[in-house]
Amino acid sequence: MPVYDRPTKSLMADWAKAHLKANQAFSKSDVVPWFAQHYPKTKRNTVGMHVEGMSINNPVRKHHPSIKPGSGYDLFFKLGRIDTVCGTRRVTANRSTRPTWKRRA
Q1: Whole-angstrom Cα distance, residue 11 to residue 40?
Q2: Which of 53, 61, 62 is nearest to 101 (CA)?
Q3: Rounded to whole angstroms, how far apart are CA atoms 93 and 69?
Q4: Distance between CA 81 and CA 58 in Å, rounded?
Q5: Of the candidates 6, 5, 9, which has an alpha carbon nearest to the alpha carbon of residue 67?
Q6: Residues contacting residue 92 through CB under 8 Å, at least 6 positions apart
Q7: Quick one: which of 29, 46, 69, 91 has the most CB atoms within 10 Å?
Q8: In 3D, which of 8, 1, 102 has the Cα closest to residue 50?
Q9: What is the pTM of this model?
Q10: Backbone angles phi, psi at 57, to 5 degrees
Q11: pLDDT at 69
Q12: Whole-number Å distance between alpha carbons of 30 and 52
């Protein structure tokens, strides 16, 4: 049952619309503070799981029958773990870096 009058996926779409351009990369640490300020009852893990579940290429989606194409969860594309070096991105296998996503075009 939702804590607020709208489901988290709808709130996540609001965040993306207000803070991201199409194909702009972001990390979960960009989303969590906004939810903490605007929707403090939404748990940090809930926010993180929604970022994961709303990523169209995330294999975890197959374990959740309610997350289907066209169900309002197709918002992000998971880029993987990246390093940011002088404004450029390169894929890395270093486990200490955080995964990054981008908003779908």
Answers
A1: 12
A2: 53
A3: 29
A4: 13
A5: 9
A6: 81, 82, 83
A7: 46
A8: 8
A9: 0.77
A10: -100, 15
A11: 84
A12: 14
- 42, 8 contact by CB (below 8 A): yes
Cα 65 to chain centroid distance, Å, stands at 19
Half-sphere exposure of 55 (CA within 13 A, CB side): 23
pLDDT at res. 102: 79
d(CA 28, CA 11): 14
Residue-by-residue pLDDT tens, the chain, 105 positions: 678 999 999 999 999 999 988 888 888 889 999 999 999 999 999 999 999 999 988 888 889 998 988 888 999 888 876 433 333 344 444 444 566 777 876
